Amino acid sequence: QVLLLESGGGLVQSGGSLRLSCAASGRTFSSYTMGWFRQAPGKEREFVAAVSWSGYRTYYADSVKGRFTISRDVAKNTVYLQMNSLKPEDTAVYYCSADRRGAWDLSATSSEYDYWGQGTQVTVSS
């Protein structure tokens, strides 16, 4: 069992930055692929970024590539999402997730993630 707790969301102006954190509990966290998804009002949940169990491989949605950076600190059982150059269309609830398969191919499909946090709100004003 893995429990995930996100933090770091808030209100920021367009062009600003935020860093989201996801604290994980569970002995097997280090073997899981970790991902961030987001869901805006009236829209489906969409993939944002994923990082391999080792932290060396990452995968991003085209909409955030070059602006967001995902990373993980295995010693702290924490995954981060650094978000720069934020846009109003980045406004959403951001969810941390864990894929226990730890597969080589990082998944962008929400159904392949086994554990989810409660989410943290990110609001970008224009």
Can you put this structure into words, describing what you see?
Strands 2, 4, 5, 6, 9, 10 and 11 form a seven-stranded mixed sheet that branches. The protein is globular. The N and C termini lie far apart (40 Å). Strand 7 and strand 8 (78-83) form a beta hairpin. The mean pLDDT is 94. By secondary structure, it is an all-beta fold. The chain has strands spanning 3-7, 10-13, 18-25, 33-39, 46-51, 58-60, 68-73, 78-83, 92-99, 115-116, 120-125.
Outline:
Helix content is 0%, strand content 48%. It is mainly beta and 126 residues long.
Question: What's the topology here?
Answer:
Blueprint: E1 3-7, E2 10-13, E3 18-25, E4 33-39, E5 46-51, E6 58-60, E7 68-73, E8 78-83, E9 92-99, E10 115-116, E11 120-125
Parallel strand pairs: 2-11
Antiparallel strand pairs: 1-3, 3-8, 4-5, 4-9, 5-6, 7-8, 9-10, 9-11
Report Rg.
13 Å
Mean pLDDT metric: 94
Low-confidence stretches: none
Percentage of residues in strands: over 45%
Number of helices: 0
Distance between the termini: 40 Å
Shape by Cα distribution: globular
Tell me how many strands there are: 11
Q: Name the helicity range.
A: under 10%
